[in-house]
Amino acid sequence: MKTPFRLDEHPRRPQPPLAPPAADYFDKLPLRVMHRVRPAAEPAPLWGWFASLSAPLRTALASVVLLLTFVGSFWLTSRPGGLPAAGVARRANAAQALAAVPRAEAVQYLLSDAAPRVTLADLADTHVAERALTADFLPGTDAEIQAALDEQPSLDVYL
Amino acid sequence: MEDQDILLKFRDPASRNLAFNQLVRKYQSKVYWHVRKMVVDHADADDLTQDVFIKVWNHLENFRQDASLYTWIYRIATNECLNFLSSKRRKFFLPLNDVGAELTQKLEADEQLAGDEVELKLQKAILRLPDKQRLVFNLRYYDEMPYEQMAEVTGTSVGALKASYHHAVKKIEQYVNQETD
C-alpha cells in the first residue's frame, strides 16, 4: 500500500524548482531599474514646477488655463475692432456713414472737380441702380451716349 | 548597508541614486523570487520586479516607517503580482482555473522539474490554489515568514492566515494523493 503524501514529510526546498535567471541577471537589474527611474527623477526645468504639483492641483490648473483661453478668445472676438468680427463691423460702419451724407452734398461732390471722372463702368452701375441718374450726371445727349454704347463690344454692354 | 542608512541617504538628493542602487541590490533577489513564484514565467517576473522597484522609488520619500522597509517592499510586490494575475484574467476573460492551467504549462516546460514526478505534482497542486491562498502558502512554506509579518504584508489577520495556510496544505496533499492513485 502506498504511503499517502504529507507535505511536512516532503523535503522542503528554499525555492520552487524553477530555472534560475541568467547568471548576470542580478548584476544588470539595478542598472536597468536606474535607467527607468532617472527620467522621472530629472524633469525638464521648464515644466519641473508643474510636474512637482499634486495630480488634482495639476488638473485644476489645466482647467483654469483652458477656461481663461475660452474667455480670452470670446472677449477678443466680441469687442469692436476685435479679430474676425472687425471686418464686418467696419463695413457696417462705412455703410452707415455713407447713408448719413445728405443727397445734395453727395451730388455736389460728384459734380465738382474733386470727384474722379465718371466712366462707362459708372454708367453701367448707375443705370442698374437708378435709371434716371444718367441724364442728370453724364455730360452728353442721348444720341451721343447711345453711340458710345454701340461702340462697346457686346459682352461689355449692360443695357 | 542598513535600511535606516539607505533611507537617510535616499532623502539627500546628492546620494539618492547611490542609496537606491544599494536598496535594489539588497532586495532584488527576494523580490524577484517572490514574484516568480506567483507568475512562474521569468519574463513576467522580470517586468514585475522592475515595476516594483519603480514604485519603491516613487513612494520611498513618503515611506512612514510604520512597517520595516522589507515588509513594505514585499507588500508592493504582492500587490503587483495580484494585480497582474487579475488583470490577466480580465484581459482574456479567463476563469480562475485557466490561469492556473497556463502557469502549469509554463511549469511543465521548465527543465528544472524534469524527472521529479512528486515535485511536479506538488508544484501543480500549488498552482491550483487561488492566488491569495497561493501567496500565503509561498510566504509561509518557502520564505518561512512569521505570521505577524505575513499579516503586515497581506493586510490579513494572523488567524485568517493560519487557517488559509492549513487549508492550502490540505488541498495540496489531497491533489497529490489523487494524482498518485
How would you describe this structure to a colleague?
Chain A: Residues 1-20 are annotated as: Disordered. Chain A: Residues 1-12 have a biased composition (Basic and acidic residues). The complex is a heterodimer of chains A (159) and B (181). Chain A is mainly alpha-helical and 159 residues long. Chain A has eight helices and no strands. Chain A has helices at residues 25-41, 45-51, 55-78, 85-100, 103-111, 120-129, 133-137, 142-151. The model of chain A has no long low-confidence stretch (mean pLDDT 76). Chain B has 181 residues and is mainly alpha-helical. Chain B folds into two domains: 1-93, Orthogonal Bundle (Rna Polymerase Sigma Factor, Chain: A); 94-181, Arc Repressor Mutant, subunit A. Helix content of chain B is 79%, strand content 0%. Chain B has nine helices and no strands. In chain B, helix 2 crosses helix 4 (69-92) and helix 5 (96-109) runs antiparallel to helix 6. The longest helix of chain B is centred in the first third of the chain and has 24 residues, at 16-39. Chain B is globular, with a radius of gyration of 18 Å. The N and C termini of chain B lie far apart (52 Å). The relative contact order of chain B is 0.09. The chains are: A mainly alpha (159), B mainly alpha (181). Chains A and B meet through helix 1 of A and helix 2, helix 3, helix 6 and helix 9 of B.
Give the helices and strands, then pairings.
The complex is a heterodimer of chains A (159) and B (181).
Chain A: H1 25-41, H2 45-51, H3 55-78, H4 85-100, H5 103-111, H6 120-129, H7 133-137, H8 142-151
Chain B: H1 3-11, H2 16-39, H3 42-59, H4 69-92, H5 96-109, H6 117-127, H7 131-142, H8 147-154, H9 158-180
Radius of gyration of chain A: 44 Å
Which oligomeric form is depicted? heterodimer
Major pleated sheet of chain B: none
Q: What name does CATH use for the topology of the largest domain in chain B?
A: Rna Polymerase Sigma Factor, Chain: A
Rg on CA atoms of chain B, Å: 18 Å
First and last CA, distance of chain B:
52 Å
Characterize the overall form of chain B: globular
Secondary-structure arrangement, i.e. CATH architecture of the largest domain in chain B: Orthogonal Bundle
Uncertain stretches of chain B: none
Strand residue content of chain A: under 5%
Helix amount of chain B, in percent?
over 70%
Give me the CATH superfamily of the largest domain in chain B: RNA polymerase sigma factor, region 2, helix turn helix motif
| Broad shape of chain A | rod-shaped
What structural category arises from helix and sheet content of chain B? mainly alpha
Derived structural class of chain A: mainly alpha
- Roughly what is the average pLDDT of chain B, rounded to an integer? 88
InterPro entries (chain B): RNA_pol_sigma-70-like, RNA_pol_sigma-70_dom, RNA_pol_sigma70_ECF_CS, RNA_pol_sigma70_r2, RNA_pol_sigma70_r4_t2, RNA_pol_sigma_r2, RNA_pol_sigma_r3/r4-like, WH-like_DNA-bd_sf
Domain RNA polymerase sigma-70 region (chain B): 23-90
Family (chain B): Belongs to the sigma-70 factor family. ECF subfamily.
Keywords (chain B): DNA-binding, Sigma factor, Transcription, Transcription regulation
